Give the backbone structure.
Amino acid sequence: MSKKPRILIVDDEAAMRESLKDWLMEDGYEVNSAESGEAAVKMAAERNWDIVLLDLKMPGMDGIETLERIKEINPDAEVLMMTAYATVDTAVQAMKDGAFDYLVKPFDPDEVEIQIKKIVEHKDLVVQNILLRKKLEEKYHYDEIIGKSDAMQEVFELIDRVAPTDSTVLITGESGTGKELVAQAIHGNSARCYMPFIAVSCGALPDTLLESELFGYERGAFSGAEHRKRGRFEMADKGTLFLDEIGDISLKTQVDLLRILQQKEFLRLGSEEIIKVDVRILAATNRDLKAAIREKRFREDLFYRLNVISIHVPPLRKRKEDIPLLVTAFIQKYCLEMNKEEVKIASSALKLLMDYDWPGNVRELENIIERALVIGQGQKIEADDLPFSRRDMAPAELPRSLKKMERVHIRRILKETNWNISKAARELDIDRQTLYNKIDKYGITKEEI
């Protein structure tokens, strides 16, 4: 402790109170006293006491009850019980209720001083442990990204190295692994951090709409263009543009994007005016771009322009040691949002989470924790609050009918992608219209997902 502790003496004997108070004040402690348990509880409610010297036998509220009440008010207070009736039973009861130790009357000032020094050393150790734990937790966090696994520590190190540069970064990884969080961390730790971070989900937009979103347009450039609109490149000037799902853009848009990367300039739709921008490009994909190059669906020159530095975000199944950390973080986040007391997770529930393969990765884990907090009623997330029993059917429980099996599979993919039709269609390897047709055919609703 950086300063001497505040001490409260509680004893119904005036002579004991005064002699203890004089001893301790001579040693430079801040001391006050109470003649009863009731008075001590009132004083504890008015201010925090570091140490309480508490008599065990008092009329009215006795020492054990006073101890319990003071600990309810201030759990960090350390209590030394004082008794002339030292028995194993009373000592054990006092320690069970949170007493630090006890003194047997009569005692001399040296005994009290020794116990106070023990308490101060104990409190200093607690503070050191809290600071050490905080440092460890900081090591496991990088902005909003959480992970203590070797794989995530490598990601953190790469972010550290690339953030101060202006290099283009290609972030790869499965859907739901947190690629956008990596992009935000790179931007947030760069010299551009006070300028805009603009994100575009390329896979969620049709080709013509994506062009107008990226480059903007002039009034009259096409039907419905009633006024000039700035594109995302202009919005991100001096900052960072994050192109998510870069593997989904058309070959024509790839050519336009390549020109910007090479020349830092572009044309608005319907304009011949060249616009120059200073933008750092971060891109992400869950696709195999090298395979797309071989299939002539992605330009090799654009790939090498984007892939100056590559960061791969591992799937959750490859870093399961991070699951307890992530669970704790999501519980804290959603308890705060829901304005409810923070809950724990039962060991049986955590085992289910650790055993699961997480096709939807961190996003799926976050959704499951949020759902468990909504439907759970107790002070812990229990195994019954998790949806695995319904979703992970054993082979014998799967539908025999091919149509029913297809419905089950489509529902699962829609759930994993948060009902994102574009992403779900890609996962299912069908086009969006076919997916819409199947949703209608099988009567799948967003509510049941």
